[in-house]
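note to self — DONT lose this again. spent like an hour looking for the file last time. sequence + predicted structure for the chain T wanted, 363 res
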Amino acid sequence: MKSTPFYTKLAHISISILAIGLIAVLGKSILAPLIIALLFALLLIPFAGFLERKLRFPRAMAAFVVLLVLIGAVSGLVVLLGSQLSEFAQELPAFQKQLMVSLEGLQHWISESFNINNRQQAAYINQTAETALGHGTELIGTTLLSLSSSLLFLVFIFLYTFFLLMHRSLLLRFVVALFSDHHSPVVYEVVERIQYIIRKYIVGLLLQMAIVSVLTCTAFMLLGIKYAFLLGLLTGILNVIPYVGIFISLLLSVLVTFATGDTAHVLFVFIAIVCIHLVDGNYIMPKIVGSKVKLNTLTAVLGLVLGEMLWGITGMFLAIPVIAIAKVIFDRVDGLKPWGMVLGEDEPATQSQIPADEELPVE
């Protein structure tokens, strides 16, 4: 049988990637909550199974109870974060006043260090402020629309999670029926492996988020940083986004501390977050999250960039688990194994894999 030419395979792959990207862009409003619901369902299947087997709950009732637990957990986190933001909003006038005082000090330092007079700085600041105020009405409208869209987004996530849990057996039979009978063991293995990896990954991320939040809150409280609990909670939540979240939390923490403290506090906050990130990256992440999701750094960064381009912040949250699911599938399909290889971590070559003319000399 004649093999398919390379350029034909390349064309098929390119068209498939473009088609998947187009579907992702056009179907964001459906696919984004559905994928998040799928992750929640994979995480909560053991709990639903326990209710069905041990407590003899009907599947619909078990799915409903699990959904209530999920809604309670998400609501608790939202209420906790909302209370801290509400407290911050009440002190916003004082925060703005302190920020202006700090900016005046910074303006004086720039004037002395770089010979840029205060009039030039004031003109630039006024021009920027006028531009921002010109878009104020549009910003408020966008914020209200975003809030209503987020609530609707959460409603769809909860609904999809409930239906995925209730109809999981039907969906599994559908997936298995898509392939021939002799492929059924591989399909079951892939589904089981995906459940295991995603479950361990999400649990590890939640535990990592809690530990980083506690460490950051404790460090900021010891340093006497204002809004320590809010900044620590935001640092833990944003840390879920690999590589990018820590820089966003660092910027927010430094900005708030700059407006509410002095230069020494800003430096201490910077050092504290960097040290916590080093501990997280070298100990917490490997030990707790583990190497369940074996993706190389290049793949993870590209996934984050593409996720942000397609779906914004939601895409950045979903990039790693979606790529991990794809890698599980690629590793178990003969024609897709090279793609699974390029997504995974580097593995040192064994002696048998090293060409004869490149073998290391034996002393």
